[in-house]
Amino acid sequence: MSGLSGWVPLWPPAASAEAGTVDAIVLLLLGLSGAVLLLVLCLVAGFAIRYRRGSPAKRGALPELVQSEVEIGWTAATLLLALLLFAWAASAQLGEERTQSDALEIHVTARQWMWKAQHPNGAREINALHLPRGEPVRLLMTSEDVIHSFFVPAFRIKQDVLPGRVTQLRFHPTETGEFHLFCAEFCGTLHARMLGTVTVMEPGDYARWRAAQPEGDGLAREGAALFVSLGCAGCHGAGGGGSEVGVGATVRAPRLAGLYGRDVPLADGRVVRADEAYLRDSILQPGRDVAAGYAPLMPSFAGLLGEGEVQRLVAYLRERGEQPGEGR
Amino acid sequence: MSGDVAAALREPWDSLRRQREAAEFGVWIFLGSEALLFAGLLLAFAVNRTLHPAGFAASGRETDIVFGTVNTLVLLTSSLAMAVGSEAARAGLRRLALRALATVLLLGLTFLVLKGFEWAKDLREQLWPGAGFRLAEPGARLFFGLYWTMTALHALHLAGGLAVVGWLSWQGWRGTRPLGSPAFQVAALYWHLVDVVWILLYPLLYLGGRA
Amino acid sequence: MSGITADDAMAEAPQERQGDSYLTAETGLASWLLTTDHKRVALLYAAALTAFFFIGGAAAVLIRLELFTPASDLVSAEGYNRLFTLHGLVMVWFFLVPAIPNTLGNFLLPLMIGARDLAFPRLNLFSWYLFMGAGLLLLAALLLGGVDTGWTFYTPFSTGYAHSNVLLAALAVVLVGFSSVATGVNMLATVHLLRAPGMGWFRLPLLVWSIYGTALVMVLATPVLAAALLLVVAERAFGLPIFDPRQGGDPLLFQHLFWFYSHPAVYIMILPAFGVVSEIVPCFARRRIFGYTFMVYAILMIALLGFLVWGHHMFVSGQSLYASLVFSFLSFVIAVPSAIKVFNWSFTLYRGQISFQAPMLYALGFIGLFTLGGLTGLVLASVPVNRHVTDTYYVVAHFHFIMVGGAVTALYGGLHFWWPKITGRMPPDGWARFAAVLMFFGFSFTFFPMFVMGFLGMPRRYASYPPEFQVWHVLASAGAVLLAAAYLLPMGYLAWSLVRGRRAGDDPWNATGLEWRTASPPPRDNFRVPPIVEEAAYLYHPRHEGPRHEEQEPHRDQGGGT
C-alpha cells in the first residue's frame, strides 16, 4: 500500500514501550557497526590502492608502532566494545524484566494454525487481540500441539509458545492502531497463514469493545465449576479452603485459598513461589513439588484435562488466592 | 620378525612405531567422539530424571537387576580378556592372544544373549512405553524410552566391537594379519569404551531407584 | 638451504614430470572409486559436492521465484516447506560443512605439511562412501516426497506432527555426521603425526591451522547431533517418548542438543574459509601475514568459544533470562577473535605490492561480506534486539552473509587459487575477475534487502507474506539472478580451462608453501624428494624489509633443501 506512493518504510512502527528500548540499542549498534565497517573498508580499499603493485608509495619494514602494540590495541578495543554493548543490552533487558505488577492478563493458546485469546472477563477472540493503550499487558501462553512463536513486530517482542508449559510475555502498548501478529516458529503446512491482528484501542474504546463481546463465563467461574466436578473439593475442601483430617474431608490436603503468590515450603526443603507455573505443574505432576507436611497422594491429571481446562482451574485458584482469609 | 613389521606397515608410514602412534591417537579421538554421543543421551537422561525424580526412581526398580549385574560382570571380564589379548598380540604371543580374543568373543556374545533374554522379559512385563505400558508414574515412559534407546545403542556398539574382534581373530588365526599390527590395540581401546559406557548405564538404569 | 627451484627440477626430469601426475598415474573407473590417494578422494568429494550444490541451488531458485509475489502461487504452502527444508539440509550438511575441508582441505593438507598422504588413506575413502550413502538416503527422502521440518528438526513437530520422510532425512544426517567424524579424526592425526621434518606447529600455514580447528570441532560436536537425531528417530519410528510434552518430556532439550552441534557447525563452515583467505591475501600482497601468532590463537579461541554460545539461538524459546545473558555475553566475546582476523588481513595489505588477480578479488570480497555478516551478528547477540529480529529474514540475511558471502566466496577464491595445482591449468583471469565482482554484487543485492525486511518484521519460512514486504522480496529475487550467474560462470570457464587453459608451472602465483614446491599437478606421492622445512610460513620478503616490486623471486621457499 505504501509502495504506491513511492514511499517504502525502512523502520517498522513502534507501538510499545519496549520498542523504544530496542530501537535505541539498534541505532547505537547500527552506528557502531557502520563505523567499524567503514574503518575496515577504508583500510582495505586505502591500502589496496596505495600499495597496488608498482605504486610509488614507501615500502620496507613495518613501523615499530604497527609491529605488535597495534594488535594488542585492537584486541583490547574490540573486547571493550563488545563488553560495553553487552552491558548495555543486558541492563536494558534486566530493567524490562522488573515485574509490572498490575498487568492486564490475557491467556493465549496457540495451535496449528490459529491464535486463541481469552480476556479476564471471558471474552474470546481468534487470530485477533484487542488491547487498551497505556496499560501493561501480560500474556500467559501455551500451545496445544507444536512450538509456535508469538511475534508482534510493532512491539519488538517475540516469545516461543511451547506445548506442556506456560510462557509469559510482558509488554506495554503505547500507540493505538492495528498491527501484525505473526507466528515466527515454523509450525507446519500453514505456518505462513498463522497470522493475526493486534488492535490497540483507547482504554475507553477497549472497555466498550469488551463489554460488547458475548460474555462467556469468566475463566475463573468456569474453573470453579471444574473444581467441583473433578472432585478437587473432596480433599482440598469446598472453595479450596483446605482440610484437616476429621474436619469433613477424609484426606488431608493443602489449603488453596490465599495460596497464590505465596512462598510454599516443599517436602524436600526447597521453597517455591506459587505462581501459574507451579499451580499448573501441581495439577499435572503432583508428585514433583510436594508441599511440606503433606503426603504425595494426589493423582496426576495429565492427559485427563485439556489445556483450556487447566487454564480455567489455574485462573480459579488465582482468584481464590487473591481473596485471603476466606474459608478459615 | 622384520617381515612381520613390513607386512604390518601401511602407507603413508615409514615406521611401525609411528604408525601405531597414529592409530592409537586416531582411535582416542574417535573414542572422545563416541563418548560425546553417549554424553548426549546421558544428558537427556539427567534432565528428565531431574524433572521426574519419582517416576525415574519407580522405573529404576522395574529393571531386572540380576540380568544387569551378571551382564556387568561378563563385560568387565571381557575387558580383562581384551587387555590380555591386545598385550599378548603386541608381545607376539600368538596362542595366548588368540585364546584371549576367543574369550572376548564368547563373553561378548554372552552379554548379547543375556540382554536379549532381559529384553524379552521386559516386553512380557509390559515395559515398552507404548500401548499397555504398565507404570502410571509420570516420567516412567520417559525412563523406558531412554532405557530402550540407550541399551539398544550400546548393544549396537557391542555388536560392532564383536564384528571387529571376530574379524581380527580370524585374520590372526589364518595368519593374514601379523600380530604386530596396531589394529589389536585399537580394537582393545574401542572394546574398553563400550565397557565404560555400560559401567555408566548400569547404575543409572538398574541401581538408581534401589538405593 | 637453498631449495631446488622449479627450473632445476624441470631440467632434471622433464619427461617423467609430464607422465605421472596423480591424475594420470592410473586410469579406469576403478582406479578412482577405489583410490586411497587423498588428491583423488578430494576430487571425488568435489564431484559429489557440485551435484549437491546444484540440487540445493535449484531449491533456492524456486524459493526466490515463489517469493516474488506475496501469495503462494508457484508452489503450494506444503511444497514451499519442503523446498526450504531441502535447501537447508543439502546446503548445510551436504555442501557447506564438507565444502572446504573435504575438497581443498583433503587435497592440500598433506601437501602443505609435506606428507605423502593423510594418516589413514583408506578411512578417507571410506568416509567418502559414507557421505555418498548419506547423500543417497537424503535423495531417497526427497524423491519419496520430501521433508517438511526445516533443517532444524525441532520437536515435537518432527517427532509427532510432520507427515514426511523425517526418518530418512534424520538418518542421512546421522550418517553424514559419521563421515565428518572420520574425516576429522583423519585430519587431526595427519597434522599431529605427519608433518615434514622441521614443520613445527608455528610454521604451519594458517589453512592447516584452520582445518585443524575445524576437525576438532567436527569430532567433538557432531556426535551430540547424532545423539539428538537418534532420539528423534527413536521417538518417531518406535514410539519411545523422549521429548513428548504429553508424557512430561521437554521439547527444549532437543534444541539444546541440536544447537550444541549446530552452532559449532557454523564455525566448521567458516574456519576453513578463514584459512583460505589467509593463504590468498599474503600471496597477492607479497607480504607476510600480519600477526601470525594472533591468527593461530584466534582460530583456536573461535573453535573453543564456539562450543559455549549455542544458547543464543534460544533467547525467545523460554530458557531462563540468566542463561540467555550468559550466552549473550559469550557471543559478544566470540566477536573478538573474528575481529582480530579481519584487522590482520587488512594490515597484511599495508606496505605490500598488491596485485588483483581473481583469487585476490574473491578474498577481498570475502573480507567485506564477512565483516558485515559478523557485525550484524552483534545485533543478534544482544538479548532485547534478538527478541525482535530472531526467526525473521534478518537472521536469514545474517547467516547467509557468513556462510555464503563468507564460506562460499572463499571456496571459489581457493578454487581459483589452487586450480593450477589441482589441474595443471590456469583459470582464465579476465573471466574469473568478472565472476568475482559479479558474485560480490549479486550476493549483496540478494541478501542485503533481507536485513531490512527482517527488521521490518518479515518472519522466515513463510510461503506467503503481507504485501508490504514485496518490494524487498523482488529486490532479493532479482539479485539472486545475478548471484546464480556468478556461481555458474566459473563452472563454465573452469571446465573450459581443463582443455584449453594455459599450462601452469609449479608455482604460478609465486607463492610460498610446500604445495607449490612440487609439480602441478602433483605426482601420486606428492613429493619426489621429501621436503625439509627450515623457515616459517609466508616468507614473502625478508623480515626487516618490505617487498620490492621489481624482484623476480620475492620470496624464499618455506621448504626446500634436500
UniProtKB/TrEMBL annotation, chain A:
| Gene3D superfamilies to which the protein is assigned, alphabetical | 1.10.287.90, Cupredoxins - blue copper proteins, Cytochrome c-like domain
EC no. given is: 7.1.1.9
**Keyword annotations:** Copper, Electron transport, Heme, Iron, Membrane, Metal-binding, Respiratory chain, Translocase, Transmembrane, Transmembrane helix, Transport
> Where does the sequence pass through the membrane?
26-49, 70-90
| Bilayer topology | Multi-pass membrane protein
- Domain of life the protein comes from: Bacteria
Which SUPFAM superfamilies is this protein grouped with? Cupredoxins, Cytochrome c
Kindly state which reaction or reactions the protein catalyses: 4 Fe(II)-[cytochrome c] + O2 + 8 H(+)(in) = 4 Fe(III)-[cytochrome c] + 2 H2O + 4 H(+)(out)
Q: Is Zinc included in the keywords of this UniProt record?
A: no
Q: Give start and end of each Cytochrome oxidase subunit II copper A binding domain.
A: 101-212
Q: Where in the cell is it found?
A: Membrane
Q: Domain named Cytochrome c: which ranges?
A: 218-321
Q: Record's InterPro entries?
A: CcO_II, CcO_II-like_C, Copper_CuA, Cupredoxin, Cyt_c-like_dom, Cyt_c-like_dom_sf, Cyt_c_oxidase_su2, Cyt_c_oxidase_su2_TM_sf
Major localisation: membrane
The residue range of the signal peptide is none
Function according to Swiss-Prot or TrEMBL: Subunits I and II form the functional core of the enzyme complex. Electrons originating in cytochrome c are transferred via heme a and Cu(A) to the binuclear center formed by heme a3 and Cu(B).
Q: Which family does it belong to?
A: Belongs to the cytochrome c oxidase subunit 2 family.
Q: How is this protein named in the record? A: cytochrome-c oxidase
Organism of origin is Roseomonas acroporae
Q: What is the lineage of its organism?
A: Bacteria, Pseudomonadati, Pseudomonadota, Alphaproteobacteria, Acetobacterales
What is the name of the gene encoding this protein?
Answer: coxB
UniProtKB/TrEMBL annotation, chain B:
Give yes or no: UniProt keyword Kinase: no
Write down a Pfam family by its short name.
Answer: COX3
Q: Which superkingdom does the taxonomy of this entry point to?
A: Bacteria
Topology in the lipid bilayer is annotated as: Multi-pass membrane protein
Q: Which GO terms describe its molecular function?
A: cytochrome-c oxidase activity
Where is the protein localized?
A: Cell membrane; Membrane
A single GO CC term for this protein reads: plasma membrane
Please provide the Gene Ontology terms (biological process) for this protein: aerobic electron transport chain
Q: Which residues cross the membrane?
A: 25-45, 65-84, 96-114, 146-168, 189-208
- Keyword set, alphabetical order: Membrane, Transmembrane, Transmembrane helix
Asked if Transmembrane helix is a keyword of the record, the answer is yes
User: In what residue span(s) does the Heme-copper oxidase subunit III family profile domain sit?
Assistant: 1-210
Give the primary localization class: membrane
PROSITE patterns on file: COX3
Coiled-coil intervals: none
Q: What's the family?
A: Belongs to the cytochrome c oxidase subunit 3 family.
Protein name according to UniProt: Cytochrome c oxidase subunit 3
Automatic annotation (TrEMBL), chain C:
Transmembrane portions of the chain: 42-63, 83-104, 125-147, 167-194, 206-233, 253-277, 289-309, 321-340, 361-381, 393-419, 431-452, 472-496
Q: What GO cellular component term, any one, is given?
A: membrane
Stored InterPro entries: Cyt_c_oxase-like_su1_dom, Cyt_c_oxase-like_su1_sf, Cyt_C_Oxase_1, Cyt_c_Oxase_su1_BS
A biological-process GO annotation: aerobic respiration
Coiled coil residues, start to end = none
Record membrane topology: Multi-pass membrane protein
Where it mainly occurs, coarsely classed, is membrane
Instruction: State a single Gene Ontology molecular function.
Output: heme binding
Per the database record, which ranges form the Cytochrome oxidase subunit I profile domain?
32-534
Q: Where is this region: Disordered?
A: 543-562
Keyword annotations for this protein?
Answer: Electron transport, Heme, Iron, Membrane, Metal-binding, Respiratory chain, Transmembrane, Transmembrane helix, Transport
Organism superkingdom: Bacteria
Family of this protein: Belongs to the heme-copper respiratory oxidase family.
Its name, as the record gives it, is Cbb3-type cytochrome c oxidase subunit I
Originating organism: Roseomonas acroporae
**Phylogenetic lineage:** Bacteria, Pseudomonadati, Pseudomonadota, Alphaproteobacteria, Acetobacterales
